[in-house]
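In the previous chapter we treated chains in isolation. Here, by contrast, the input contains two separate entities that must be folded as one system, with a combined length of 229 residues.
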Amino acid sequence: AQKITQTQPGMFVQEKEAVTLDCTYDTSDPSYGLFWYKQPSSGEMIFLIYQGSYDQQNATEGRYSLNFQKARKSANLVISASQLGDSAMYFCAMRGVRDDKIIFGKGTRLHILP
Amino acid sequence: EPEVTQTPSHQVTQMGQEVILRCVPISNHLYFYWYRQILGQKVEFLVSFYNNEISEKSEIFDDQFSVERPDGSNFTLKIRSTKLEDSAMYFCASRGLDRGLYEQYFGPGTRLTVT
């Protein structure tokens, strides 16, 4: 069975600092995808970044990067130069090649302080 | 950029009533999903749908739930007799093959409140 673990229920970070949100996963699938989603207080789920298990390089999307360490089964999200608008709930998620559903972690609530 | 849309944004209903949540997936997508998120909890998979049939469903998706693609654009989730514990945010998602096999695009959600 697949599992996503996010150990940080909440984080407070000063504006303009970089922040790392932790995520570890467990799966027996040989191939899988890892995702991060942002959920602001308005409730919608915003796709941030995707990492394939066989991708040679870590994924980057603007200020977001995914620190993928396959041997450690970790997929941490790094947000550089944080902004007040980054305050939200962040979910790590995954999907296996044999599975069509996305499994989510419990999320980390990020607060950016001015 | 194409997006998944959902209506209504908020639905209030009385316990025992039927509700239909509507979604319009991205037009060239072939795989459709419903997820739900009880307030303060993680997002949970309900059902996936492909080629006009359910491909997978979770334990949550019992006989009270059904999905349908009544025409070429809409994808609906029906709850026949709502219970208080059905109160949640319901997300529709769709997937194509244009950005790899994995990425699902989520709609903005419908907040269902059962009183």
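The mean pLDDT of chain B is 92. The first strand of chain B starts at residue 5 and ends at 7. Compare these points with the single-chain example from earlier in the chapter.
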